[in-house]
Structures are given as structure tokens and as C-alpha cells.
């Protein structure tokens, strides 16, 4: 019987690593070209539609002028002039109504008809080519949110989520342990643009220690580790509270330090129930459905879903447990005992190739990337600050990586490979 807790260890072949790097660069460039073609395709389609609309408008104007001129025809000296005007209008109408020549575009040093180019682009766009960031080329491009309580600053930030409809960045600001068991809380969610500009923030009187966050359609889900609950806010101007579930406990619908959460395509909410060693599944209105597994999961911290699998970041070694949607353990990834592995993982995310990006709470200032087999690929560093822990992270639509570094000069940092 397979031992699902056994570390996945494989020798690293430098030639294979180089080949993989070259392949990643090739795919990245291909996707950049694909994105450029897509933009050009939409520009050409809009231009063609605008030309047709302009012809129709001109035709209607000429028809109106002709009708108006015919109505003014009188048996006088101006009749001959008016008839000539009608003849000119009819000539222009014929020109407008004549089939326009095909638009040709210079593409690949060849002149191709627009319709043919659109058909070719359509074929390219239908291809399922994974868009993968070039992690080796990622550099810090934005650093915002110094430690302050004022709007636009960040105090004890925890997790980050992206609203992919607007590209807005949502950051939870939670509880900070001071001394003798005392807490300092800020209990709010701050919102930034994809460039790090501050937009807004919201909170609720029942929140004490907001931690994890997930966005699905117009719903914002937030876990609270101090009141042991999950909150549901509506994505509206004042972010009204729609539902709340949970108190401290171990029964279904109760939590013991819920950490992070994610939402499936059908709206089910998966919550990591840390000290209860389980994953609770709720519906979109926060009504409990079931536990993901019957067997305990060692202190789960973060969770992500793919079409056919569930990835859980937990205290086990390896720290990534991959399960089926029925809760069956499939494999374990990302060892915590080998060189270049994570020491104290807290959050993670996946790209489309199922590469695993993990934030390390150990004081090394690194975000570490593993491939889908759990083999270390690359580490992203905070330049000039190599001893800061990392927490929440997420990939934006344009493949930038947003990371929370709670003990650095700037708490919110954005890395890009563009």
C-alpha cells in the first residue's frame, strides 16, 4: 500500500533543468505573442465594425437628403439645379452601397485579407496553451503599505485575494500577538489597485481577527481566527454583511482557528479548520455541507482547487497533500526537510501548470516555487531585505505575483516578469 506521507524526492538533472527553463521561456514568449495577436484581432474587428457603421450612417443621411430635395422640386428655374443635386446624391449612394474592397493587413511580411487573418487568429486563440509566469525573470515592481493604521497603510496583514473582474487586490489585516497573550487588532480589509494604489477599506463590528479571504463573483468570504467564524460580504459600495457562520467548537459549522478558504466554481466554500484538523465545506450562503475527509488533516492552513483535485497546505511533511474531491488522498508534495524546501509554509497558490508557489514564514524573505511533482524550481527574494517572512500571496490575471511581507519596510509587494 502506498505511503502518502513519504516525501517525493527525485535527483535534479541540471540538463533537464536547463531544458525546462528554455521550454518555460519559449511558452512565455509564445503567450506574449498570443496576447498581442488577440489585442490586434479585437482592434481589427472593432475597426471593421466601425467602418460598416459609418457606411450605414452615410447611406441613411444621403437617402434623407434625396427625399428632402425631391420634396422641394418645383416647376421653376431651380428645377434643373435640384435635379442635378439629386443625380449627385444618387451617384454618392451608389458609391456608398458598392461592395467595399477587402481590407488587407501586413502580417508575417505578407499582405493577407482581414477575414482570412481573423480566421487564422481564431484557430490560434482556440488552442489551449497554458500561460505560465517566467519566475526566473520576476522582479519587484511595486512596494506599498508601510506599518500604519491610517488608510492605505497596513497593520499586521495576513492574506491577499484578487477580484479578477476588476483586478483589485484585497488584503486582510488581523491580530498581532504582543506579549503575555495580548493581541493588537486592526480588523479590516483594505483594497488596492493592481498597481498598489489604495482604494478603500471595510470592516464589521463582529470581526476581531480577519485572516483568510476569497472572492467569488460578487461575494467576499473572510475567516476570523479570534471569533472562529466565516463572514460573507457582498461586493457593493458599503460591503454589507450577508451571512456569518461559526463559534468556537468542533461540531459541524463550528471552527477552531479557521485559516484560509477557497471557493469552487459552483460556489461551495472550502475552509481550513486549523486546530480541528479538517476541511469544512459550506455552500455559498455559509450553510454547512460536510467535511472533506473522514481522516484528520494535520493543521491545514491553506487550500486550493483544480478541476479534479484538492490541494491542502498543512503541517505534514511533505506539506502539500493532494486529494480527490471525494476526499481520497492521492499524493504528497513539497518536502520540508530537504535543501531549498520550505521551513514554515503558511500560504500557497497554483498556476495553470499546477506549479506550486509557497510563502515561507521562516525569516529568509523567500517565496518558493515547486513544479507539479513537488520538485523545487526557483526562489523569489525580497531585494535588500533577506530576512523577512512571507504570508499571503496570489497571482493576478496578468501573471504578476502579489505577496504579503508583514515584517518588511513595505508590507504589500508585487513582482512581475513583464
Detailed description of the structure:
α1 packs antiparallel against α3. Strands 3-26-25-24 form a 4-stranded antiparallel β-sheet, with no helix packed on it. A 4-stranded antiparallel β-sheet has the order 4-5-6-7, with no helix packed on it. The chain is α+β, with helices and mostly antiparallel strands and 418 residues long. The protein has helices spanning 14-71, 79-97, 114-126; strands at residues 104-107, 110-113, 139-144, 157-163, 168-177, 183-192, 198-202, 210-216, 219-224, 229-234, 241-245, 258-263, 269-273, 278-282, 288-291, 302-305, 310-313, 320-323, 329-333, 345-350, 356-360, 366-370, 376-381, 393-395, 401-404, 412-416. The protein has 2 domains: 14-126; 135-416, Neuraminidase. The radius of gyration is 29 Å and the shape is elongated. It has 3 helices and 26 strands. InterPro entries: 6-blade_b-propeller_TolB-like, NHL_repeat, TRIM-NHL_E3_ligases.
